[in-house]
Write a structure and sequence with these properties.
The complex is a heterodimer. Chain A is an all-alpha fold. Chain A is built from 13 helices and 4 strands. Chain A has one domain. In chain A, strands 1-4 form a two-stranded antiparallel sheet. In chain A, helix 12 crosses helix 13. Chain B is α/β, with parallel strands linked by helices. Chain B has one domain: P-loop containing nucleotide triphosphate hydrolases (Rossmann fold, 3-Layer(aba) Sandwich), CATH 3.40.50. Chain B has a 6-stranded mixed β-sheet with strand order 6-7-8-3-9-10. Chain B has a 4-stranded antiparallel β-sheet with strand order 2-1-4-5, with no helix packed on it. In chain B, helix 5 runs parallel beside helix 6. The radius of gyration of chain B is 19 Å and the shape is globular. Classes of the chains: A mainly alpha, B alpha/beta. At the A-B interface, helix 6 and helix 7 of A face helix 2 and helix 3 of B.
């Protein structure tokens, strides 16, 4: 029983941390319809930046904000490539990702005097200092502090994003993803709105990287591998599973999607899949999410709530 | 008000499909005119609108709007003083947002889209009175996503949105063509009401000859990139669908269609 609970706590911890990435990709992929591959580069950007900054004694909470800002700059560049230079979204992502490989390495090298990994196991992080020290380390033998801190961060980010999406700027962002010509007819440049959305999305990706790095106590370039797949899978799972739940916000859906993704990933690993198959597993879960997200799950849920569906059609 | 002069527009330039649509084309609208433009497919009607709105740029010539040259001005900047309703009802509104949110966005046109609340509840009553003019009961469904509405209802909202802020020119791009006969009749009547109420200068492209005759105070027929008929006043009032059809048939025989 204890083993199961510990696995569950692990799933919740990681699911919540990666939910930050999913929130970012919710903006780019779901709201702006922009499959943004650059997060494979901006996620570790947040991580290595945080690693280096913490090693130099910067406040770990401040690191989250710095990561967000720097992630936004990277996202802005992705946006400019797409909007000003007319490069298709997938290629913008590939260009940015490739460039970030070097940028991230330079940050680590410069910040650690030539090492390839930034390790800061004994330094203060958001998980062991400040607010964290107020939270009891464990309850009934279970280590809950990480999960609680992660939850606090995710809830704050979710509330901020929900509030933002209701502002004038947020409404315009949602409108632009749905119908660019509408934005144009409102006298606004859809390109600028897109750039802003990509900046926000990558800002969140960098924060996710920062949080994960602080939990691990180390950061390196490798952390970015598979982040696009993970983020998109969380978004797609969340939005398709909870599609017909009334009054549930998209942000809530993707956070739950991230937890579901982590759960399915962890369950397969616990069943004894060797670690070298990790990325294959990620790809397979993503594939299943895409297939089910497109067809079965939605029609399955529709059949459960068919009464609901009919009402909608008649309205 | 709006003048296109000496316009040149070539499609697929440099390929075997190269088509010179406009060469030395000129067109002018005066303030207060409601111009209906008719013509067969490929006659240049929609291109005319796209040039006026900045969706496409001419290969030569000038576009003058309210005394200033806007030839190089991007579409979104021109939209600040030009309202447009497109053929596809989905394009004039945002389907994911509610009626209220769509109206609030339109209400904020030409202002800053900043971090203040997107929907100002105090303005809701004003939006409702605007929607009441449609007579579709939309004012009671403010929180319904626009995507759930019918094409006619969406087009009505698109029209309200396009004319909500102060605009100098209303451009209607076959805005009733995608609707059923009854809806298109309703939208056309609503259009006339809005245009008259706000005294809007209007440029409308339509395939419906009856609409072109019944509404507006000037009628233009286009063919192969030229205006072959341009009537207004009494002459327009005396025109009927049969006359227009006759001209249509003549030009069709000429061009071998």
């Amino acid at each position: 029983m204890d083993i199961f609970l510990n696995i569950l706590i692990g799933i919740v911890e990681e699911g919540l941390m990666y939910a930050l990435l999913a929130l970012g990709m919710y903006i780019t992929y779901s709201l702006l319809d922009f499959p943004d591959l650059s997060v494979d580069g901006t996620f570790p950007l947040g991580a290595v930046l945080t690693g280096v900054l913490i090693m130099h004694g910067v406040n770990p909470w401040l690191c989250l904000i710095i990561s967000f800002a720097v992630g936004m700059i990277a996202g802005t560049i992705t946006g400019i490539l797409n909007v000003k230079l007319n490069i298709i979204p997938l290629l913008c992502g590939i260009i940015m990702y490739t460039a970030m490989l070097s940028v991230n390495l330079v940050i680590i090298r410069k910040g650690t005097d030539g090492m390839a990994i930034a390790s800061f196991f004994n330094e203060e992080t958001i998980f062991n200092s400040g607010i964290a020290s107020v939270i009891p380390q464990s309850v009934g033998g279970f280590y809950l502090r990480t999960a609680i801190i992660s939850l606090i961060i995710v809830v704050i980010c979710k509330i901020l994003m929900d509030l933002y999406l209701k502002t004038k700027s947020g409404l315009l962002l949602r409108a632009t993803g749905d119908n660019e010509r509408y934005t144009s007819m409102l006298g606004c440049n859809p390109g600028t709105v897109k750039i802003l959305g990509l900046a926000l999305g990558n800002g969140f990706a960098a924060v996710a990287g920062s949080v994960i790095a602080q939990n691990k106590g180390s950061a390196d370039q490798q952390m970015g591998v598979g982040m696009v797949v993970l983020g998109l899978a969380s978004v797609i799972i969340g939005l398709s599973v909870f599609k017909n739940v009334k009054f549930m916000k998209g942000t809530t859906m993707v956070i739950l999607g991230s937890l579901l993704y982590k759960a399915s990933y962890q369950i397969v690993l616990e069943l004894g899949l060797p670690t070298e198959f990790n990325n294959l597993l990620k790809a397979v879960i993503f594939l299943i999410a895409l297939i089910l997200g497109g067809t079965q799950i939605t029609s399955l849920i529709k059949s459960f709530t068919s009464k609901n569906g009919k009402e909608k059609a008649n309205a | 008000m709006l003048e296109l002069s000496n316009i040149k527009k070539i499609f697929n330039a440099g390929t075997i499909d190269e088509t010179v649509l406009f060469d030395g084309f000129g067109f002018k609208i005066e303030k207060g005119e409601f111009v209906s433009v008719i013509g067969s497919n490929g006659s240049g009607k929609t291109t005319l609108l796209n040039l006026a709105c900045g969706t496409i740029k001419p290969d030569g010539g000038d576009i003058i709007f309210k005394g200033s040259n806007i030839t190089k001005l991007p579409e979104y900047k021109r939209a600040r003083s030009i309202g447009r309703v497109l053929q596809d009802p989905r394009l004039g509104t945002c389907g994911n947002l509610t009626i209220l949110e769509n109206m609030a966005l339109a209400d904020n046109k030409n202002k800053s889209f900043n971090l203040t609340a997107g929907v100002n509840k105090k303005r809701a009553d004003y939006y409702k009175t605007l929607l009441e003019t449609c007579g579709m009961g939309l004012e009671n469904r403010m929180n319904v996503p626009v995507g759930n509405l019918s094409g006619g209802q969406r087009q009505a909202i698109a029209l309200i949105i396009a004319s909500m802020t102060d605009i100098d020119l209303l451009v209607l791009d076959e805005h009733t063509a995608a609707l059923d006969p009854k809806s298109s009749e309703i939208i056309m009547q609503l259009t006339d009401k809005v245009v008259k109420e706000k005294n809007l200068t209007t440029l409308m492209v339509t395939h419906n000859l009856r609409f072109a005759i019944e509404y507006g105070n000037r009628l233009v027929m286009m063919h192969e990139g030229k205006c072959i008929m341009d009537i207004k006043g009494e002459e327009k009032q005396n025109a009927n669908v049969d006359d227009l059809l006759k001209v249509f048939n003549e030009i069709s025989i000429e061009s071998g269609n």
